[in-house]
Design brief:
Layout lengths: L14 E5 L13 H21 L10 H13 L7 H11 E8 L5 E7 L1 E5 L8 E4 L5 E3 L15 E5 L2 E3 L4 H8 L6 E5 L2 H10 L1 E5 L5 E9 L7 H7 L10 H10 L1 H8 L6 E5 L21 E3 L10 E6 L12 E9 L9 E8 L1 H8 L2 E3 L1 E7 L4
Parallel strand pairs: 3-16, 4-10, 13-15
Antiparallel strand pairs: 1-2, 2-18, 3-17, 4-9, 5-9, 6-7, 7-8, 10-11, 11-12, 13-16, 14-15, 14-18
Helix pairs in contact: 1-2, 1-3, 7-8
């Protein structure tokens, strides 16, 4: 089996990793290695904990060599501040860069962010769109970290007296299927903004008194994700060359009935929980890993283990700090997504608020991965 390749399902692309040199990695020397190391540290604890419990961190299990690096780095973290030079030396000592080769689609990068929205604890005339907490009858059919590989299979189902049944669709839920069960976590103002918060998987909610809370993904109704933008393009309802997050939002809001019908094409519906205490410091990725602005990467765990450092190269992605030479940055695999499928399919986390949203909304660029493989030590 090729180095680094997990067991594959018939028809899936096959991954092959080929060792390369640091000197051949354009943009490596100029990167902020200290920022990458801080992000790497955020995932080490959760990855080690999951490995100790034998719980799933995705279809690709973190190799023992990566776990060993995490143990060594965590043992020394905090003893002294690590500057960029020391961080770069650590990565170059502990890892070997490997170019990614596969027979699947060309690499594609998109991006996501944490929206900041006005909301209320109570339903009012202004705030009337419910955000639901996870229902008690919701059953995971697979690990959350594996849901990208589900295809058209249901990732979650509903436990009933008659056994497991499909959960109501987005259209069903928004037409009242979960009403009167006390599942409303809070209330938002706009159904389109709420829809896109579902897609992002987290949100920061600002209450009328100015206080803020952070909510995060806590399961979904199990139905496959459908891109509404792709649906509109394929149906001839929206020109592909004009598609962006802002343009799509404007189209959906211009005619509420038309917009609702389009959003209902995506049967997937997300449930949330409120973060508190130490968890409230950042949005959470898979395994409850705190996400790092511009450093966290959602990947397909059929090919890449959570916690893996991946150097992402996208020469044409210049709007997100890439400048003239494009985007060249060490990211850490810390999240998954239902639409993130393939060996070089990545979703870049850009941070919180409207500026991050503006960057994420225009990100859809070709890209490539160089995977940092932890060195075995005798």
């Amino acid at each position: 089996m090729p180095l680094g390749a997990p067991p594959t399902i018939s028809g899936e692309p096959v991954l092959r990793l080929e060792p390369t040199s640091w000197s051949s990695l354009e943009g490596w020397a100029e990167d902020d290695h200290a920022a990458a190391l801080r992000a790497f540290l955020c995932s080490c604890g959760p990855v080690l904990e999951a490995a100790a419990k034998g719980s799933g961190a995705g279809r690709t299990t973190p190799p023992e060599a990566l776990l060993a690096v995490c143990r060594r780095v965590l043992a020394t973290a905090g003893q002294s501040s690590i500057d960029g030079t020391a961080a770069r030396q650590l990565f170059e000592t502990e890892f070997v860069p490997h170019a990614v080769h596969h027979d699947g689609p060309a690499g594609l990068l998109t991006a996501y962010y944490e929206p900041v929205l006005d909301g209320s604890r109570e339903k009012t005339g202004r705030f009337r769109i419910p955000v639901f907490r996870r229902p008690p009858d919701l059953v995971n059919m697979m690990e959350e970290s594996e849901r990208a590989s589900a295809g058209q299979r249901l990732t979650h189902m509903r436990q009933t007296n008659c056994g497991l049944l499909p959960y109501p669709t987005r259209a069903d839920i928004e037409q009242g299927m979960l009403a009167w069960q006390g599942l409303e976590l809070l209330w938002l103002e706009d159904e389109v903004d709420t829809f896109f918060m579902h897609i992002q998987g987290s949100g920061r909610i600002r209450f009328p008194d100015g206080s803020l809370v952070r909510i995060t993904y806590d399961g979904k109704n199990g139905h496959p994700y459908t891109s509404v933008g792709r649906y509109l393009i394929d149906a001839g309802l929206f020109p592909a060359n004009e598609m962006s997050l802002d343009a799509l939002k404007a189209w959906l809001k211009a005619d509420p009935v038309r917009g609702r019908d389009a959003m209902w094409q995506n049967k997937s519906f997300v449930f949330f929980r409120e973060l508190s205490g130490a968890e409230d410091g950042a949005p959470l990725g898979v395994l409850h890993i705190p996400l790092s602005d511009g450093r966290s990467l959602a990947v397909d765990t059929a090919y890449h283990a959570i916690g893996t450092p991946i150097f992402v190269t996208a020469p044409d992605l210049r709007h997100a700090g890439g400048g003239r030479t494009g985007f060249r940055r060490l990211m850490i695999a810390q999240d998954v997504g239902s639409a993130i499928r393939g060996p070089e399919r990545g979703d870049l986390y850009f941070g919180s608020g409207p500026d991050a949203g503006a960057l994420a909304g225009i990100t859809k660029h070709g890209g490539s991965f160089t995977v940092l493989v932890a060195q075995e030590r005798s």
